[in-house]
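Exercise 7. Given the encoded structure of a 661-residue chain, write a plausible sequence.
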């Protein structure tokens, strides 16, 4: 505690009294006795309080001494006062320094720590600008990361290249560096740094390193916009603060690393747990899918199992990407409203080549896995989007499900092929004229649930060789045919429909849907079972006749070509060769001269050889018809109007018209 000195005016001696409530020793009233102890105490209290010593106190102490002694006393008292003031200021700075260190030690994040560090350093030093540059040991670059007092964005975003500026000298020397008059200082200048410093108007700078052992974390700067001479106390104070800050900063960085490592370890543990759960779920799904196949289940069972395990909608398609089963995310069956897109078809092709699930850039579909056996794509599994992440194990689960689907499809195909073979053999026996329709044949038909009494109408279908199997499978549907199977190069169909036109159209639609191409469908005559083989033979002959005419698609009936079948049905005569032989010169004439002489010939034959009726039918003058008939005489010969030649020409013209319509 410091005390002030005052005179007690009521005492004759004027002795000194101590006033504990005052901070300044003031001597008032009468002068104390020479060499009084109270005067010395007043002097000491004044020095301790850091206050100026009153002149009369000094005068009283020097009474009786020489002038030199008085001057020496005053000089020493002044030195003592300055030292005490310096010690008091240093004590205050150290108190502030330790208070700042404690405050910084409470922070646990690097970003806020840097800002608080710069703020507390500014409070200690009081410079115009205080900023911190972080050091990147890998690149040697310093980046201004926190500022206080800066006014330009260019300075706040400043990056100092390796070796440039005062900051690089601090990093290299690992010691404080300071300059006054930056623009003319002996440092390695850089245009970008000089422009940023000039924009802030900085003149004097002091930089101290933030050291953690031998590692430089950064540089702390105090800067002034006027000429400032840095004292040793300022350098020491900022250096001490930087040392404290470096320790705290490194500790916080280590804590962040530890926390980050802990979070990563926790995430890794959670990921491992999720992976283990996914593996266990995948194993369970694999068992369930295997049970579906072994239990004779269909694609719907696979879809339900997958969607329940993955919590996603699932669609399963056949070879043509037509949906055969669909479920929602809960595993409940939904209507087959799926429509394939170009992106899905491309993903199926890619998955067929890679054997992996292929993601699809679509909001409705997450990915596609093809069901492949050898080089054949037997179908596809299409997985919808979901809220949960789709991991590697989930992808492999879908890919394994694709293999299960391929196995199931092969199994079903084997059953279908066996059934097709049995039904095909039954059909072959029914269409074989040498096989009697005995009780054994009827028993085989009943085993296949075929009502032979309903087998009224044979239908012959021509498709390309590579489409024949698909056409047979498509026609196995009882809604279309009682029996269907391959018969030589044709597909034979037995229909129960009493309408030949309706039955033929249904067969054509089903084949087109299965193969993507039009077929040639010839509907035979309805009748009893005992002449089924003959009626089938007529339909097959009609297909072969149309083939020789060049007709490759469409739906027709045997009755439409009965006259021609009577002429060509049982022979191997080339119909095209027949027409070329009879009317070839006329066809050549029309082709070379772009005329229609064949039309005149056809109308003339239809009008029973009357030029007048032919002219009226063609809408030309009769003389024009006569001129054309003369040209036909030249091309076909003079005897072409005889009855026998006219008959053959009429057939040739009609066959040509059939082939070109």
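Solution.
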């Amino acid at each position: 505690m410091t005390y002030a000195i005052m005179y007690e005016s009521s005492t004759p001696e004027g002795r000194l009294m101590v006033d504990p409530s005052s901070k300044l020793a003031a001597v008032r009233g009468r002068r104390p006795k020479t060499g009084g102890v109270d005067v010395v105490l007043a002097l000491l209290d004044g020095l301790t309080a850091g206050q100026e010593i009153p002149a009369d106190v000094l005068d009283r102490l020097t009474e009786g001494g020489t002038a030199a002694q008085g001057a020496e006393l005053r000089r020493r008292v002044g030195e003592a006062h300055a030292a005490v003031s310096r010690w008091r200021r240093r004590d205050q700075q150290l108190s502030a320094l330790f208070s700042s260190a404690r405050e910084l030690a409470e922070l646990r994040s690097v970003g806020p720590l840097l800002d608080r560090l710069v703020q507390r350093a500014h409070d200690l030093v009081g410079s115009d600008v205080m900023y911190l540059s972080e050091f990147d040991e890998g690149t040697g670059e310093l980046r201004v990361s926190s500022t206080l007092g800066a006014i330009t964005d260019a300075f706040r975003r400043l990056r100092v290249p390796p070796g440039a500026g005062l900051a690089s000298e601090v990093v290299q020397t690992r010691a404080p560096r300071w300059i006054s008059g930056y623009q003319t200082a002996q440092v390695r200048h850089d245009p970008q740094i000089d422009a940023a410093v000039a924009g802030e108007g900085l003149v004097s700078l002091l930089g101290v390193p933030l050291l953690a052992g031998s590692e430089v974390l950064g540089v702390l700067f105090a800067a002034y916009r006027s000429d400032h001479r840095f004292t040793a106390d300022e350098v020491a104070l900022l250096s001490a603060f930087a040392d404290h800050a470096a320790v705290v900063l490194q500790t916080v960085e280590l804590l962040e690393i530890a926390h980050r490592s802990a979070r990563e370890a926790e995430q890794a543990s959670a990921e491992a747990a999720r992976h283990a759960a996914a593996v266990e779920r995948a194993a369970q799904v694999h068992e369930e899918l295997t049970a579906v196949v072994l239990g004779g289940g269909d694609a719907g069972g696979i879809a339900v199992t997958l969607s329940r395990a993955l919590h996603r909608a699932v669609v399963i398609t056949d070879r043509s990407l037509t949906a055969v089963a669909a479920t929602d995310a809960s595993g409940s069956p939904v209507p087959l409203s799926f429509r394939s897109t170009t992106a899905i078809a491309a993903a199926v092709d890619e998955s067929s080549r890679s054997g992996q699930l292929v993601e699809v850039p679509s909001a409705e579909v997450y990915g596609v896995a093809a069901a492949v056996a050898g080089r054949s794509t037997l179908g596809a599994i299409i997985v919808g989007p979901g809220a949960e992440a789709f991991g590697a194990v989930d992808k492999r689960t879908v890919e394994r499900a694709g293999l299960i689907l391929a196995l199931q499809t092969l199994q079903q195909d084997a059953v279908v092929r066996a059934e097709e073979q049995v039904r095909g053999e039954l059909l072959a026996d029914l269409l074989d004229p040498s096989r009697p329709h005995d009780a054994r044949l009827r028993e085989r038909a009943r085993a296949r649930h075929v009502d032979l009494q309903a087998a009224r109408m044979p239908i012959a279908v021509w498709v390309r060789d590579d489409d024949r199997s698909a056409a047979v499978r498509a026609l196995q549907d009882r809604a279309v045919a009682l029996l269907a199977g391959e018969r030589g190069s044709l597909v034979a169909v037995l229909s129960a429909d009493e309408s030949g036109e309706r039955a033929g159209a249904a067969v054509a639609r089903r084949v087109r849907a299965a193969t993507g191409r039009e077929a040639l469908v010839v509907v035979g005559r309805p009748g009893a079972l005992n002449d089924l083989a003959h009626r089938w033979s007529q339909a097959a002959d009609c297909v072969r006749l149309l083939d020789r005419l060049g007709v490759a698609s469409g739906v027709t009936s045997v009755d439409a070509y009965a006259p021609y079948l009577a002429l060509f049905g049982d022979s191997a005569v080339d119909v095209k060769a027949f027409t070329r032989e009879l009317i070839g010169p006329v066809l050549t004439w029309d082709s070379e001269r772009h005329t229609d002489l064949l039309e005149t010939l056809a109308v003339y034959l239809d009008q029973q050889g009357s030029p007048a009726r032919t002219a009226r039918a063609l809408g030309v003058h009769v003389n024009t018809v006569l001129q054309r008939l003369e040209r036909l005489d030249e091309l076909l010969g003079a005897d072409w109007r005889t009855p026998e030649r006219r008959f053959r020409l009429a057939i040739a013209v009609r066959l040509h018209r059939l082939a070109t319509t």
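Remark. The first strand starts at residue 4 and ends at 7. Students should compare their own answers with the one above.
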